[in-house]
Amino acid sequence: MAAARGVEDDPWEAEEVTEALTRGPYAPAIPPHPPGAVIPPHVPPPGPEFAPRVRRGDVRAGTLALLREGPRNGYQIIEEIARRSLGVWRPSPGSVYPALQQLEDEGLVQGRESGGSRVYDLTEEGRRHVEARAAELAEPWAAVIRSVPEDRHELRLLWGQVGEAFLHLTRTADDKQVAAAKRLLKETRRGFFKILADDYDSADEIDPRPTEEAE
Questions:
Q1: pLDDT classification of 11: cutoffs 50, 70, 90
Q2: Does 173 map to a domain?
Q3: pLDDT per residue as tens digits for the range 151-161
Q4: Which pLDDT belongs to residue 176?
Q5: Cβ(140)–Cβ(96) below 8 Å
Q6: Sheet holding 117-122, edge to edge
Q7: Where is the Transcription regulator PadR N-terminal domain (predicted)?
């Protein structure tokens, strides 16, 4: 059996998966759907085995690292951390905005209103602070990615990719495609339970075609 290809082997696929994770089933809200579209059910968050380990100070470090590159608002900081961590780490507004306020109180960043949002940039003191701690602040999202076991990380990315494909299907599929998708989802669910029962051979027999075609 050929070795499974890692997500990193295909940069375009990695970007697609990131989009799925940040705007698809793992996002806090589902994007707007056209009239008549099927809205996917809420996907429960991954279990503790899939949860990244975010250390105290990582949000602060990630915020400073990004502001070193240029001004950003809070939403852009959240989105960029999610993108660079391939969707493993998506800090909440409840952690990013208090961090920005603390940095502003310390005189390390300054905020200004621009286009209806508050944009933050490093002050001169902030730039000196970041330069003095360049190694400490270098890509904190990399450590968060490494905190998730590689096989579970790839499984999480694949699940996000499935969710994105499902969104596309609900927007464009005709009746025949919807029927085929329903069969596939039912068979996939059965396949998961077979895997959990260590029945690997029968789990490989999933076939989404109608019974008469499969035979």
A1: very low
A2: no
A3: 566 666 677 77
A4: 92
A5: no
A6: 72-73, 117-122, 109-114
A7: 64-131
Collect all residues with Cβ–Cβ distance below 8 Å to 25 and sequence separation of at least 6.
40, 43, 159, 160, 163, 164, 166
Read off the CATH number of the domain in which 133 is found: 1.10.10.10
The answer to whether residue 169 is domain-embedded is no
Average pLDDT over residues 108-126: 92
Pick left, alpha or beta for residue 81 (phi over 0 → left; psi -120 to 50 → alpha; otherwise beta).
alpha
In a domain, 175, yes or no: no
For residue 134, being part of any structural domain is answered with yes
Cβ neighbors of 111 (< 8 A, separation 6 or more) are 100, 104, 118, 119, 120
Taking the C-alpha atoms of residue 59 and residue 9, their distance in angstroms, rounded to an integer, is 28
Alpha carbon distance 156, 148 (integer Å): 10
Q: Stretch 120-142: mean pLDDT, rounded?
A: 86
> Contact 154/6 with Cβ under 8 angstroms?
yes
Mean pLDDT to the nearest integer, 35-59? 54
165 φ, ψ (degrees, to nearest 5): -60, -40
AA identity, residue 182: K
Structural domain including 76 reads 52-147
Lowest mean pLDDT among 10-14, 70-74, 180-184, 186-190: 10-14
pLDDT for 82 equals: 81
For residue 15, pLDDT over 70 is answered with no
Domain count, the chain: 1
